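Appendix B. Raw example, untouched.
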Amino acid sequence: MGKILLIIQREYLTRVRKKSFIVMTIIGPILMAALVILPVYLSESTSSMEKVAVLDETGWFFQKFHNQQDVRFYYVNKGLQQAKAEALAKGDMLLYIPLPKLNLPENAELFSIKQPGLFVRGYIKTVMRQIVEDKKLLAKGIDPNVIKSVKAHINLVTIKISEEGTEKESNTDVETGLAIFSGILIYMFVFMYGAQVMRGVMEEKQNRIVEVIISSVKPFQLMMGKIIGVGMVGLTQFLLWIVLTLALVGVFQSGIFSSEIAHGIKALTEQSVASGQTGAMSAGTGGIAMAQISGLLSSINIKVMVLSFIFYFLGGYLLYSSLFAAVGGAIDHDADAQQFMLPISIPLIFSVAMTGVIANQPDGALALWMSMIPLTSPVIMMMRIPFGVPYWQMGLSAGILLLTFVFTTFLAGKIYRIGILIYGKKVGYSDLWKWLRY
């Protein structure tokens, strides 16, 4: 045990002192914070006021187009050519609504020097459609206000009832987003740090360092120490990313930078958390209240989510890293790794591909069995947990994952102890099978 601890210490300290680790630990939070900060900053710095001159020959749409955040409407009463020339000379757009001879005014032309934005086009079409529909209803003798009054907004609240009979409000949209995010995050980190183990073993094998190391320790101890050491590096980097990202966003919101941009970031962050409930919010609303965010997140057990993420990250990493370490010990070059990497990667890739199915039926038979199979459980179980999973299922899945890790480590150790001493030979599946039977 003491030798394994020494190997873990060596792997951990060697990797955290590397320039690549320090650089990625700094760049990672900056990139993640930039995903929140840059869209708001760019929208604030590049947004410009657009003006639209309205030439309405029908008279139906006079004073019907109201000013929006970055769009201003004004009305002209001139000939088409003169109005177009004057508007374009000022850099404005011209909305021309001609007077139809037979049909209703369902056609319009928008003249502009540059391509109009989607918001401008969408707003104009929405206003015109509403006015024309109201005119059609009046022509049929139907009051448009009556039609509007019968429209209803349905607010469906989901109430989950536990086995003990307690009721708890849930939010499917937030749970689905959190489930997909957690599953993909597990996939990324397991694959990324598992591949690091394989490359580390290959480097030591190519440099013949491993021959010196195994003179003092057993190959199994070396493999176990390397796997756990790299796993601790990955967990350390992930926790630093989370802390630094939250710190960067918090600093940006604290008023050090432009108050308008900080306010926009706060609104964007709140909207991303509660996008399923708020729908399309106008930019002037400033987001939703913090009380609403707390209400949306109250249906999710954050403590269970965090602890489960750490466990399944470590469990999935340990399981796949033992397989990656065996592959790294059996081959000499990266080109030879492809034939072994694909079968190992298929369960992880398949788990991510099933994201939509699992999020749609988190309690279905497929989701249940995939959350028990150890090669898919790290990703699938993290997708199910936001929706609420019985503790016995979580315990059973965790137990199977740990037992499978021990078993795969035993098998990988048999491959590892022979493969690390073989050089210049192209290893195939038949060779691995022979080594397993020794």
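End of appendix B.
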